[in-house]
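Thread: sanity check for a docking pose with flavin-adenine dinucleotide

Original post by kr_44:
Hi all, I'm comparing my docking run against an independent structure prediction. Below are the sequence and the ligand SMILES. Could someone generate the full complex and paste the structure tokens? I mainly care about where the ligand ends up relative to the chain.
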Amino acid sequence: MSATLGIKHGATSPVLVAGSDTECRVCHSVSADGSRLVTGNGEHPGPGEDPSSAWYDLMNNYAETPMTAANDGRFNWGALSPDGKLLLNNGAMNKNGVKLQGSAAEDNGPLLAQLFTVATGATYPSTGIPSGLVVGSPVFSPDLPPWKRRSIQALKMGRVVVVHFLFDAWFWRDANPNLPGWSTRSGRISFWDPHPAGKGQPVLLGWITGAAAQELSDLGEEAGRDRALSWIEEPFPAAGARKRVQWSNLRDWIRDPYALGSYSYTCPGGALERAALATPLEGLHFAGEATAQAPHYQTVHGAYLSGRRAAREILGALGREVASSPRSFSRLPRRLFA
Ligand SMILES: Cc1cc2nc3c(=O)[nH]c(=O)nc-3n(C[C@H](O)[C@H](O)[C@H](O)COP(=O)(O)OP(=O)(O)OC[C@H]3O[C@@H](n4cnc5c(N)ncnc54)[C@H](O)[C@@H]3O)c2cc1C
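Reply from moderator J.T.:
Ran it for you. Here is the predicted complex with flavin-adenine dinucleotide included:
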């Protein structure tokens, strides 16, 4: 009839794992660690007939253990946990309400999702499965290994809000014509004059970071601009800055849905986590400024270099010729911005 075959890494031909010339054992799931397999154990069940199930110990000569706790096919096409110890049952019907081959759906309707212990077939007590959930051919997402999760958690997203003010005069140059800008709150609040004397417009650009940026973000656009203006007034109380505003703009990178912040940073001791984040994982490759090597992380050219690096890794994994390294960026300044 039908069987499930297995092929070991490096082998040139498969072996029989479950089934025989007279049995149908096809509806199967395998745990991510390769230790266990669960199959349906029915001979083409017709209407009203249900297949039983069995699990196979793939680490022990494919030893078969019937799952007699339920002979209604509820274990077939289930989701096996990565270690093969638990199973979330498959209970769906097709769109016409007909039980899918080998599924756990009862003749009178779909079967609710439940967790089971594979070794015994007993229900596994669990919380968090939504009531009324019915799942068709479920699977578990593979877990990331602890070192990869640690690297993701170690990298934080910075907070930046950028404000621009156009005034009717360069009042901040009155006392010092060459004033390029100033900073307060340990550099969290910086205002720059981007134009050299005799050129451009009377503009101040505010680069607001960390807690001060969060303050503006929480206030929202209008009140945030107002607060930023009050920070300009602080060092020039007699200049009447508020009345001089011709145009203003606030760009909140913390709330930007496509960026969710400015660029990555690590807490003390986390410098090596960027390399861990960049390390490929079973065919999954990682790029982006957060994965760039020092001193290029946090920058556009760091993101670019990381994309080149990931592309080289993928080509290498495919056995394709790897292009030469990109031109070095080492002569670029550490930052193109503050
Ligand atoms: C205000 C500001 C000024 C800056 N100035 C400079 C500068 O002068 N020089 C410099 O070098 N760097 C600067 N940077 C930093 C630079 O912008 C970033 O380091 C760089 O853009 C990061 O590139 P990236 O490709 O890693 O990430 P991103 O550019 O953030 O790209 C990630 C992309 O993924 C998309 N995405 C996210 N989630 C999903 C999802 N679930 N599905 C599909 N797509 C998704 C996002 O929409 C985004 O397009 C500045 C940053 C800010 C905020």
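Residues 160, 162, 253, 258-259, 262-263, 288-289, 298-301, 303, 336-337 surround flavin-adenine dinucleotide (CB under 6 Å). Hope that helps with the comparison, let us know if your pose agrees.
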